[in-house]
Design a protein that fits this description.
The protein has 206 residues and is mostly helical. The strands form two sheets. Strands 1-2 form a two-stranded antiparallel ribbon. A two-stranded antiparallel ribbon has the order 3-4. β1 and β2 form a beta hairpin. The protein is elongated.
């Protein structure tokens, strides 16, 4: 997530101080990705260093107010114009966990998958319930207006699609393991030939 560009995007609407930026960001994204205020001010310092924002004094209550510069506007418009680059696959803890479970002795992989499916389904139901409530609160008149209600609904849609994809992938994993008989990997269940090859030291011809 680019905090740098998110702050620049918010500053396009007008000058703000750090706490205001954090509040605006969390309101528009449903506090799905809460920001640390220290991180916000560190990012503002770097943006000022790069001449993308500038200080506008304080608001009379000790809050330093920042505004975006012309270079900052160009930077954020370039961000909006470019697709998000996925140079490396994002680290997926669940995929890593299953990969390790499948390759370690004594791990009940089927139980790992079932526990995750239960949690993922619960999360999916929670997101779906939140979206239903948000849509009701927004009312039919707000649909398609591009307002904050719509932004929050789209964030919830993204979370729902991700949860659905995770459940489908878990179904795939379970089906694959059923075909391969890989539900639980134990030393006793390993092929005799494989065990022998690990303990046998082959003769070396000289």
């Amino acid at each position: 997530m680019s905090i740098r560009h998110s702050l620049l995007a918010l500053l396009q609407e007008g000058p703000r101080y750090g706490y205001q930026l954090r509040g605006e960001f969390e309101e528009r994204t449903g506090a799905t990705w809460p920001l640390n205020i220290g991180q916000v001010y560190t990012t503002l310092d770097r943006l000022e260093r790069d001449a993308l924002v500038k200080k506008e004094g304080d608001d009379g209550e000790g809050h330093v107010v920042y505004s975006i510069t012309a270079a900052g506007r160009a930077e954020v418009m370039g961000w909006f114009a470019q697709p998000v680059a996925q140079a490396n696959p994002p680290r997926n803890e669940l995929a890593i966990k299953l990969a390790l479970a499948l390759t370690l002795d004594g791990v009940d992989v089927t139980a790992v998958v079932q526990a995750q499916r239960t949690a993922s389904m619960r999360q999916l139901q929670d997101y779906t319930r939140q979206r239903r409530g948000a849509a009701t609160a927004a009312g039919p008149g707000s649909a398609g207006t591009g307002g904050r209600d719509d932004a929050w609904l789209l964030v919830l849609d993204s979370l729902i699609f991700s949860a659905e994809a995770e459940v489908r992938w878990l179904d795939h994993c379970e089906g694959w393991m059923a075909k391969r008989g890989a539900g639980t990997r134990t030393s006793a269940a390993r092929p005799a030939g494989a065990a022998a090859s690990e303990t046998h030291t082959p003769a070396v011809s000289r």
